[in-house]
Amino acid sequence: MAEYTYEFIASYTVTTAENNIVFSSIPQTYTDLVIFGKSRITSAASQSNIRFNGDSSAIYDTQALSNNGGASITASRETGRSQIDGAGAIGSSNTIGWFSPNEYHIFNYSDSVKYKTTFSFGMSSNNGNTLDYCGHSVGLWENTAPITSITFITNGTAFAVGSGWSIYGIKGK
Amino acid sequence: MPIGMTYISSTTLTSTNTAIDLTSIPSTFTHLYLVGSIRGTENNSTLALRINNDSANNYALVQNYSYITSPGTGANRYTIGSTSQIRNNAGHVEDTTRLANLFGQFELYIMDYKSTSYKKSYIFKAAHSLNSSQTVLSDAYGVWNDASAVNQLTIKGDSGNNLNAGSSVHLYGLG
After folding, report:
1. With CB atoms counted within 10 Å of each terminal CB, which end of chain B scores lower, N or C?
2. Which of B76, B99, B101, B100 is nearest to B89 (CA)?
3. By the CB < 8 Å criterion, does B148 face chain A?
4. Dmax of chain B from CA atoms?
5. Cβ–Cβ contact A135 with B under 8 A
6. In tens digits, what is the pLDDT along chain A, a chain of 173 residues?
7. What three-state secondary structure class fits B153?
8. For residue A101, which of B116, B66, B61, B127 has the smallest C-alpha distance?
9. What are phi and psi of B137, to 5 degrees?
10. Bridge pairing between strands A164-172 and A32-39
11. CA A41, A38, A104, A146 torsion-angle sign
12. Of all helices (H) and strands (E), which one includes residue A136?
């Protein structure tokens, strides 16, 4: 009978504000990847985006369900991007010590035939003791190459100290 | 050395109770993962959760949800000072008029739960079916405005109603 589990691969915590954080040499021994972490930006609220294998060409797409200010849910789509517009990140105007929770699923990452698809979950805000946005999205990287590196990118200034992520692999035995 | 997902504990209510209380959570992992199935004893209640038995208004959240009428979608939020618990519009089947043997389900992630430097952020997803044609689901995101390490989780109804026998939770650590 198959058994499934999460196995730790790598983790990183920001100790000096930085952008373009790379997890490299990801082992090809699993079928899917799951990432948990938290993020905060040193500028206004933004996102914790992800890029695969250092590929910055415009072949990433994202579709999301989210809300703004606890109001109605809206759908949005981003195509031809240079990264997957992923989970949200807390901005510098939110209460000190607050972070967005980040959750990502990357499916069939070691496969060499399928385009790579993702789920992302998180929130973002830049508003004191108030949270303004949350939602989840699906992402697509139009490339069949196995994923060997993941780069966390914000379109804000940088990830703040304390931001960080842990990567886990899932496989059948 | 981190190893991945590790089972910590399970609790199943054998009789009606006010809450499921998980105490003495070890500080040996990076993140916490809690999954459960819950049924309550009263109508018009929602799933709620407290950290470290903190009943002050120290929780903030924002959530998306669908509801049974039409069906439709909605969203809401709570700022610090307005709620004394993590809430979710789904995941908790009210008992009095619902199908027997039906439980809501939820999963909760608390990131960097043992940190004593940062406030705790969480993702709280839930759903429940009221009958054969009506289902509610929600994903909530928020912050517990406290930098203490998390050592206790209390799963309850938001208005203090009881949980039914058979309600259960399973706690895992992600190292």
Report:
1. N
2. B76
3. no
4. 50
5. yes
6. 445 579 999 999 999 999 999 999 999 999 999 999 999 999 997 889 999 999 999 999 999 999 988 788 999 999 999 999 988 899 999 999 999 999 999 999 999 999 999 999 999 999 999 999 999 999 999 999 999 999 999 988 999 999 999 999 998 65
7. strand
8. B61
9. -140, 155
10. antiparallel
11. positive
12. strand A133-141
d(CA A57, CA A41): 24
Assess contact for A99 and A32: CB atoms under 8 A: no
Look up tokens 């999205």; give the residue. Answer: A137
| Residue type at B129 in one-letter notation | S
For residues B146 and B50, is the Cβ–Cβ distance under 8 A?
no
- Assess contact for A163 and A154: CB atoms under 8 A: no
* Cβ separation B122–A123 shorter than 8 A: no
Single out the residue of A2, A1, A21, A26 nearest to residue A169, CA to CA: A26
How does DSSP classify residue A162?
Answer: T
Binning chain B into helix, strand and coil, the percentages to the nearest 5 are 0, 50, 50
The answer to whether the CB atoms of A166 and B123 lie below 8 A apart is: no
A168 in contact with chain B, both atoms CB, cutoff 8 A = yes
Token pair 């389900």 in the structure block, residue: B105
Residues of B in contact with A69 (CB under 8 A): 77
Q: Which of B89-93, B111-115, B145-149 has the weakest average pLDDT? A: B89-93
* CA distances from residue A35 to A57, B74, B136 in whole angstroms, order as listed: 23, 28, 27
- The candidate with the shortest Cα–Cα distance to A55, out of A84, A16, A17, is A84
Q: Which two tokens stand for residue B36?
A: 């459960």
Interface list for A 29-58 with B (CB within 8 A): 36-38
> What is the model's pLDDT at position A1?
44
Instruction: Copy the structure tokens of residue A154.
Output: 């914000």
CA B8 to chain centre: 17
**Lookup: tokens for B101:** 């043997």
CA distance A135 to A90: 13
Least Cα distance to B113 among B25, B15, B5, B23 occurs for: B25
pTM for this model (two decimals): 0.95
Closest CA to A103 of B2, B154, B174: B174
Determine the residue type at A67: N
